[in-house]
Design brief:
heterotrimer; A mainly alpha (264); B alpha/beta (268); C alpha/beta (149); B: 268 residues; alpha/beta; Rossmann fold; six-stranded mixed β-sheet; four-stranded antiparallel β-sheet; 10 helices; 23% strand; C: 149 residues; eight-stranded mixed β-sheet; elongated
């Protein structure tokens, strides 16, 4: 009995160690891959046109979903915040509460998660399919560096697009929070705006934007990496897409904690 | 044109190629044949410098592809073309843009000149008039012909074909095989074809290399191959299921496995 | 190529909208070039600031006229508060600074009550008269202490 459970523990520790090692290995691989791609940014040929195309597909294409998420987040925050603050008779703080939660936390995090769902998964699937159908090799044969042509523009595009999308999320969220708080729940409009303006500091805005840039970057890195290193089969691409969404979401949440502790 | 010296490639523990030596001669069609897992695709990928060898050299016109720098390689690539097994057309671009891709990327030519060149290439593969089709709208055989036209766009000295006839109906396969043979002769280019299609291989080849489990077991002209004494060659040409190349790939004795003899490695 | 032109324009608009949005938020909410940055400093020493911190409001007659820009310990027992007052707001030299609370459990702010002097505080001057924070715990304990006597 004793030896069996001891064996099980050893085996568990072994698989844990193996998991940690492969994770580290993959992180290192992802870092080298994305850094070697990014190093090509200032190398000729200039990939500006492809960055623009990816900004269109990933950034502009995600605008609607971000707008909807932002609107409903602002609305529910106003409702919940009002419910809680009314207990203390501090409804006037509603504007500040809604604005700070959106700008510091929910804008960047929810924006990032929506971008992963809308654009991240499609990045992985697209690159994975390019691998399966040998399009990556075809580019290589036509003397086009796939890292510069396929990976780089997508990483740059998510890094640029997310702060912009988060800004739109913030503005739409604040506006819809105002509509619910002031028009529907009857909080004094002047107090709502006044508290919002006096409580939100420039550093809160910076914190939100820095987060957005960081999240956009790791979304680009993780999703391109998963697609590029996907096993070149149909199942491999499907598995890679799932893995990319999970890894990118977890990555965003961990990075969110690190950055938040940094900015407080 | 290409000389291969002691070329080996291993994936983990498994050796895909064991110190292979071979030559690809100018203006000829060299066909590399072998069953699945014989290492022929691995060999082709290294000839085209898509993969680096574990050891050995690939000499392309005096350059060693095993240790070449990316910049030089990309200059050499202007002289190479490749037709992939699944065509590998860029599916965001239509037929015209796919064929014109390298011209758009690597030349400063006027669009009207590019249009003329694309029309000529598509005419060569018999698909003029399909310029605005998307790759998803093409049949497998047509996609392969477009891929052929794309590989020819820069008038390469050498074109690599990976399984050009696999997955095609007999007529399309015949069309592709004829195209390879005719265009190689007409344009004085060099072709390297990897295939397991014995019929097409013998039809188009000037020189045949037969691979089995990472080794070259026979090479020569189609006639020499047909009359080759090696049993394995004859088995491959006739497609017999059993012979010197065994049907069963099991490494343990059947009776041992049935009796669950201890000491036999079994995958759980 | 025609469609690429269109995409380029849409992406340009997208980026422009983002930059305008960021600028607008920074100007409206972050007070770039607003209350926080412009103005002149005055200082005041309190024996207890009870939670006033950087960014706390400074009000005259209930109107925000400035912001606390710095709070630190002075001589190991007093709190030195530096406030930035909006230009155009004139404070008399005998102005009284007191630490107050918005509502019962609200946050702390500094209330300035204008005096009768005709002289005006200059940039960098110190407010002489201060009133420290009312500590609710002190009040409660005093009440209990008194009633037991």
């Amino acid at each position: 009995m004793m030896s069996v459970s001891f064996d099980a523990v050893i085996r568990l520790l072994g698989s844990l160690g193996r998991f940690a090692l492969t994770s580290l290995d993959r992180m290192g691989d992802a870092t080298t891959l994305s850094l070697s791609s990014l190093a090509l940014l200032f190398r000729r040929p200039w990939q500006g046109q492809h960055i623009v195309l990816q900004l269109y597909a990933l950034g502009v294409g995600s605008f609607i979903i971000i707008a909807i998420t932002g609107a409903f987040t602002g609305m529910v925050l106003a409702l919940q915040g009002y419910y809680t603050l009314a207990k203390f008779g501090s409804e006037s703080l509603l504007g500040a509460g809604v604005a700070l939660s959106i700008i510091r936390e929910l804008g960047p995090v929810l924006g990032a998660l929506m971008l992963i769902g809308r654009a991240g998964s499609s990045i992985t699937a697209e690159i994975g399919i390019m691998r399966v159908t040998e399009q990556v090799d075809a580019l290589e044969m036509m003397a086009i560096n796939p890292r510069a042509r396929v990976l780089l523009p997508r990483i740059i595009a998510t890094t640029i697009a997310l702060p912009i999308l988060v800004t739109m999320f913030d503005i739409i969220g604040l506006a819809s929070g105002y509509v619910i708080g002031v028009e529907l729940l009857g909080v004094n409009g002047g107090a709502y705006i006044g508290e919002m303006i006096s409580k939100v500091m420039l550093q809160d805005l910076y914190a939100g934007w820095v987060k957005a840039v960081g999240f956009g970057f790791i979304i680009g890195v993780i999703c391109t990496y998963m697609g590029y290193r996907a096993e070149p089969t149909t199942e491999g691409v499907a598995a890679a897409t799932t893995k990319a969404v999970v890894a990118a979401s977890v990555g965003v949440l961990i990075m969110n904690y690190v950055l938040t502790s940094f900015f407080l | 044109m290409i000389r291969v010296e002691k070329l080996s490639r291993t994936f983990g523990e498994v050796a895909a190629l064991n110190a292979v030596d071979l030559q690809v001669r100018k203006h000829q069609t060299t066909v590399i044949m072998g069953g699945s897992g014989s290492g022929k695709t691995t060999l082709l990928r290294m000839l085209a410098a898509l993969d680096k060898p574990s050891s050995g050299h690939v000499w392309f016109d005096g350059h060693d592809l095993a240790s070449i720098r990316r910049k030089e390689l990309y200059e050499l690539r202007a002289r190479m073309g490749m037709v992939f097994q699944y065509s590998a057309l860029l599916n965001s671009l239509n037929v015209y843009d796919n064929v014109a891709f390298t011209l758009h990327e690597h030349t400063q030519l006027d669009e009207s000149i590019i249009r003329t060149m694309v029309t000529m290439k598509l005419e060569q593969v018999g698909l003029r008039g399909f310029e605005s089709f998307m790759p998803s709208e093409l049949s497998g055989g047509m996609a392969k012909r477009v891929a052929f036209a794309r590989a020819l766009a820069m008038d390469p000295e050498i074109v690599f074909f990976d399984e050009p006839t696999s997955g095609l109906d007999p007529i399309s396969a015949g069309v592709i095989a004829t195209l390879i043979k005719d265009l190689t002769q007409k344009t004085h280019m060099t072709s390297v074809v990897v295939t397991h299609d014995v019929h097409a291989g013998l039809q188009i080849a000037d020189y045949i290399i037969l691979l089995w489990q990472g080794d070259i077991i026979a090479e020569g002209t189609p006639d020499e191959i047909r009359q080759h004494a090696d049993e394995r060659v004859q088995q491959f040409l006739e497609g017999r299921p059993d012979g010197p190349i065994p049907f069963s790939r099991s490494k343990t004795a059947y009776i041992d496995d049935l009796l669950h003899k201890p000491g036999v490695v079994r995958i759980l | 190529m025609q469609s690429y032109r269109k995409i380029e324009i849409v992406v340009g608009l997208f980026v422009l909208l983002g930059i305008i949005g960021m600028g607008w938020m920074a100007a409206k909410l972050g007070q770039v070039g607003g209350l926080a940055d412009e103005g002149y400093p005055v200082t005041a020493t309190f024996s207890d600031v009870g939670g006033v911190r950087d960014g706390s409001d400074v009000m005259v007659a209930g109107v925000v006229v400035g912001r606390v820009s710095n709070v630190r310990l002075k001589g190991n027992e007093h709190a030195l508060v530096t406030m930035t007052i909006q230009p155009g707001v004139q404070l008399t030299t005998d102005v009284i600074a007191s630490v107050r609370t918005k509502g019962i459990i609200g946050e702390r702010y500094i209330r300035l009550t204008q005096g009768a002097d005709t002289e005006i505080l200059e940039s960098g001057d110190e407010i002489e008269e201060t009133e420290s924070a009312l500590n609710i715990e002190d009040l409660v304990s005093k009440y209990i202490f008194n009633s037991s006597e």
